[in-house]
Amino acid sequence: xATNVRLxxxxxxxxxxxxxxxxxxxxxxxxSILMFANPNTQGDRRSQIxxxxxxxxxxxxxFMMMRTGTTYRCRRLFFVSLGIxxxxxxxxxxxxxxGTMGIPIEEMIAGRTPFCFMPIPLLIxxxxxxxxLVFPGSILPNGGMSGGGMxxxxxxxxxxxxxxxxxxxxxxxxxxxxxxxxxxxxxRAKIRKIDVRWRYGPWAVLLAMVxxxxxxxxxxxxxxxxxxxxxxxxxxxxxxxxxxxxxxFVTLFAGLVIVLPLLTKKRTQCSIFCPFGAFQSIFNKTxxxxxxxxxxxxxxxxxCQNACPNMxxxxxxxxxxxxxxxxxxxxxxxxxxxxxxVVWHIKGTEVAVKPERARLMFLYAAWAMAVxxxxxxxxxxxxxxxxxLA
Amino acid sequence: xxxxxxxxxxxxxxxASGPACIAACGPVIVPSLLTERAGLQAxxxxxxxxxxxxLVGYLLFAIGAWxxxxxxxxxxxxxxxxxxxxYVMLACSLIWYAYSARRMCSPSCSGSRLVNIGETKxxxxxxxxxxxxxxxxxxxxxxxxAGIRAAQLSSVAQAVLFFSIFFVGTSVWFxxxxxxxxxxxxxxxVTVARIAMVLIAIYYGSxxxxxxxxxxxxxx
Lengths: 390, 220
Description:
The complex is a heterodimer of chains A (390) and B (220). With 390 residues, chain A is mostly helical. Chain A folds into three domains: 15-99 and 354-390, no CATH class; 105-286, no CATH class; 288-353, Alpha-Beta Plaits (2-Layer Sandwich). Helix content of chain A is 57%, strand content 4%. Chain A contains 17 helices and four strands. Chain A has a two-stranded parallel sheet. A two-stranded antiparallel sheet of chain A has the order 3-4. Chain B has one domain (2-212). Chain B contains eight helices and no strands. Chain B has helices spanning 2-34, 40-68, 71-74, 76-105, 126-137, 141-151, 156-171, 187-212. In chain B, α2 packs parallel to α5 (126-137) and α2 (40-68) packs antiparallel against α7. Chain B is globular and about 55 Å long. The N and C termini of chain B lie far apart (38 Å). Classes of the chains: A mainly alpha (390), B mainly alpha (220).
């Protein structure tokens, strides 16, 4: 997969007027104000300032998306901010609550392990076989560090997923932003050819982890393979096994989230490893939004394939006029196409007929959820920073 | 009368333990099946060989359990060492199996078109029997329960019969796995299964080494 071909000049869509862009942004302005004018934070000045900054940030990015007609760069700015500020707020909270990033076994037994979305696919089979959730957290928000609890996290995930499918990985995942930011740093990729079979990696990790979770009756991915334990929390290492676990977390984080994105300019953790991403790909079938390739306009220059950060386009899929099911709907391929042949599409409608309308509908859904979910995480991270600056 | 009650107990114990057995064997059998040829006949053949070898493992363990007397509960150090050795052997077998799938796949899998893996020849019963035997030896919780119960019986023949009936009870739960024959065997499915086998092998291998060195492994 070549990544450094000479690119024809990208023809950007004509910019909208400021007034029209503002008009299109107005629903997001109202939504952001509703989200961040929280009466619960009235006594906390730092939270209010963080909320205001976040609201302005999210509104400004959406306005720029409306004005320029492009998606990827503004979304990336939000996503990288989310990836950087999530650990800031989370680690601060964890350390404030228990003094360390390590989860002692007592906390796990007490069901006070914070729950993220990653273990969701691992819980399904054990729950089906035994009606037991193999995660040491609480279902309801009464488990101290579990925050909103499993039910709230699963509810948020389900709501977002049913609407935008694997768009979750570009608009809601609070881990992917770190590697997307790192992948954006180098000008050119050092590794230009990646064997397409690496695309099967996430499915293999998913299969292995689902089976091991059922066999061991524990969320095997969280216990052994999650690279993001390195920047969130980890098993408190009290013996050799604990040390090995933490060594694996740090090694995977360094390799998949830092080194490989720098070398390939791809989101390598997402595209070759993340089992949740594979699971999430299934839900691209339930979402009405997708990216299509207008065969009448496409001259297969493979610019879109090279631009895709998730290796979700192949020559075969381009020839079929579609992305692979792992498409994260980040918009990179749409923005880079010089002939505007790669378009946003709503299932059941004709391809390339009013694609901007499909883009707007997708972005309203995705950005509303980004403001609600990612925005609150960004605001929390900013609050933490303001706390330290004060 | 007492004998029939014992064997009824073995059957019920097997049926009740089936989900735990399939959970314990799942990491080995599911990816292995996915690297086999598609079709009900090929998958049923694999399952029969696997289950037959698992029965042999059970019976050998039954004899050991009866001869040594509650092997599982009375000798924790030896049990740990035995489990560690079995896990390492299982890991080696899985890696060999994943490797042999590559040999079968080549060169037809080099393209991205859909192909039927193993169209021309089968890998035979060797792999299924080794994996079945090793999973038969693995000390999963229901197996330990059955082992302790078998050790309380009055003769080795009764222990063997108890284990055989227990095996029949657990095997019922493996029948739905034949449904994996419906999954198309293309490059994607075989590659996913092979990588998964290697990951599972790494897990079993590391746990086995930790157990042999005297550690407790993870949750074992």
